[in-house]
Amino acid sequence: MEIDRDKQALALAKAKAILDDAEKKREAARTEKNVLVFLRGNFDILHNDEFVENLASYVLNKYILDEQAEAIKILEKLGKSLCSRDVALRERSLMVLSVFTEVILEEDFQGFREILSRVLVDWLKFEEEYIAGFEVVCSQLQKIILRMLYDGQWHELENMIIILQQIGSGVIAKSNLIRGMSAKVHENLAEPDILDKLVNVYLDETDNRRAIAESLLIHLGRYSAMFMVQKMIYSNNKEERFALVGLIPRIGEISVPVLQKCLDDEPPWFVIRNIILIVSRLEDPSLFTVIEPYLTHKDIRVQQQVINCIEMLGGKMIRKRLISALMLVNDELKGQLIMHLGQFEGNDVGNAFLDLLEKRDGFALHVRDDLILKLCMKLKFYPLPRTIKTLKELINERRERYGDADKILLASSTSLQAVEMKLKDDDTGVETPSPVPEPAAAPITSSMSEPEPASEAEGLDESDILAQISEDEEEDSLFTSDEIEGMTESSDVIAGTFANPGSEQLIDSGFDAGEEMPFYASQDHHLLVWSKLYEQMSTEEVNDFFALLKPVAYKTDDEIAHQGDANTNLYFIDSGFAGISHVDEEGEILLTSLQTGELIGSEGFIRGVKWSVSFQAQTDLQVRVLEQKDFEALAEKYPELTDKLRYYCNHYDVIPYLLNITEDDDVAPLNTTTMVDTNALVLDSDGSVITESTGGTVMYIGRGGYCFTLPFVHEENPEIVLGRQVSSSITLADGSERRCFGVIAGAGSHDHDAEAIYIYVKFYHPLEKADYNCTSLEVM
Q: Which letter does DSSP use for residue 334 in this model?
């Protein structure tokens, strides 16, 4: 019988397919069996080529069949086998994971990202050899982590990124090849879009992801530092800059080259100041060379920060560095350095004081006597023959010019007597008690040779000596970094900052009301309190502007200006509290007090109108006064300065402005409706509590706040709401919405509208333009 060839071929193909299918089933069964062996911890099964080839597909199939837990269990075991001591087993495990990872990346199966990245990072931490597939898997790991970063899986990644950083930096010891590859992966994670997202979350104090964003920024290394430094430089928000200044040092000294590069580009003074502050917080004394050149910077604020940095860095060289600074910095800053160096023994300190005293004719006039007096008082603790000669010359000079009652002459005579007695005792060998120095100073030795510093005798750093500075000399101490950050326009510097207490008090603090103050109210203190004003000025503008300000002290209850005065002065409060009040026929508008960092007088100074308020000292008050005629002359030299000052005043001296236009018949009110949630604080005209939101009327607006009215004139309402915080929903001219927080700074009734209570709101953060609508507000 003739065989049908076609049928035969078909039959053979069918038989082969049946055999193949049977073999696949047997292969699948073997794989299933081998998986069970593998899960029991027998990793030798990985030497089976068939098992290794099929395992990735097997795990993926489990995921597709919704058996994800089983798939993850196998991946966890692969993670264990990746850390086997057998190199061949590690290579085979890595091959399986690499094949599986490639599929996961192509299909973007998010469920496996965390387990894969964790397993691979743990392997990197363990691996000591550059095994087959190393580079490919590192590239895959980088892709997985980047996708997780973009998708906000930050908590899952924190430990992995820390491990990558530790490998790249050498904390976890690896070969150069492995370390280099890990460092490359780590650096490539710091993409700008990711860093921008992390920084924005960190700067938002209300975001519950802030802590994890902070950790990731710290551990993403030098590119993170570079990004944050640039963000700090170009940010117009002071709070943001200070937040970044606090975070950048925590990245560590890997940020130093970034900071040095920024300094090389000669940035503005405030950028230099912030970089010096960052260096200070790294607390490595060897970094002083980075900031040392700025002891002679033309801006006194930068010099002040370098002095602070010397103290914060500490170390064995602190005394030598303070002596160097004493000779280089602006005369305004020398006084605090004299007081600090006076805590140290040693001929080098005594000679530095004498060198400085011999240059006294070159001191700036406004601090000359202050510095000479400080030097005289300190020299009594440095018994050198040269001290006697210099003090005698000074005594003769002062007696000839100012007579025997001169306080510098008296101080010099006292110090001269103490030094002569000390040197006489040293010559005769008679031990006489030395003049008692300040509490922090070590006792003076009886030897003419340089005494052993207390820091060396007791095994202490010289920085430990500075930690003992007497509280009696607080006003002369260096500003700390916290004070640098805290002395903003709203800082609560206590009244009496200008006082100079202690046994070595230099200036009598008992002024007559309104008399001009001596200059121990230091420039650096004022510049820090008013930093927001001065940041918009150039160094030359700052120096010339400050020179115009007249320091004046007032006693409690002194009236400085009266409502209706044609006063054109501008007042900057440096210390203390002042009350402002507005009275008309209907009664008084209650107004909150002014304090350190606030100004008043712009309505007369800028707008040329009479004062809408009276201005009175509530405590001893120290202010600096800018007279209009003096400023006009300066404005001819710096034409842009007028706009800068007007801009600041329009933002921060808002309540008198609103009061003024409220009573100006030529200014039409807005009369726009706003919904007011009074939180059951306000009383109706009959004394009952208003429990529901009610309609109010926005009357006038400014950049720094607004005035609205409520139709409830109960006599207790002004006192109830005054000083309470307000949350305002604002619609800007472009249609965008914003929530602004502020405080009720004034409340009461006006005679032209006795049927309503007028409430004046002052924003904590003024708006750029007075072009907005307040749609609703909540009194809190």
A: H
Cβ neighbours for 679, distance < 8 A, ≥ 6 positions apart? 778, 779, 780
pLDDT at residue 343 in the model? 82
73-118 residue pLDDT tens: 888 888 898 998 999 998 988 898 888 888 888 888 788 888 888 8
- Residue 178, C-beta contacts closer than 8 angstroms, at least 6 positions apart: 124, 127, 128, 130, 134, 167
Nearest in space to 742 (alpha carbons), one of 775, 778, 698, 776: 778
Burial 445-478 (b: 16+ CB within 10 A, else e): ebeeeebebbbeeeeebbbebbeebbebbebbbb
* Exposure class string for 76-99: b at 16+ Cβ within 10 A, else e: ebbbebbebeeeebbbbbbbbbbb
Burial group, residue 293, by CB count within 10 angstroms (0-12, 13-18, 19+) = exposed
CA distance 612 to 563: 5
What is the spatial distance between Cα 35 and Cα 48, in angstroms, rounded to a whole number? 11
Supply the pLDDT for residue 23: 58
Please, what is the Cα angle at 623 between 620 and 627, to 5 degrees? Answer: 145
- Cα three-residue angle 675-677-682, rounded to 5 degrees: 115
Mind listing the pLDDT tens digit for each residue in 279-302?
A: 988 888 999 999 999 999 988 888
Residues 510-530 pLDDT 10s:
334 444 444 334 566 677 667
Tokens representing residue 616 in the block: 């009175």
Q: How far apart are CA 233 and CA 265, in angstroms?
A: 12
Residue 47 vs residues 51, 81, 93: alpha-carbon distances, Å: 8, 12, 10
Residues 322-342 pLDDT 10s: 999 999 998 888 888 998 888
The pLDDT value recorded for residue 240 is 86
Q: If you write DSSP's letter for every residue of 516-567 in order, what string do you get?
A: BPPTTS-HHHHHHHTHHHHTTS-HHHHHHHHHHPEEEEE-TT-EEE-TT---
Closest among 549, 553, 470 to 509, alpha carbons compared: 553
The Cα 771–Cα 605 span in angstroms is: 24
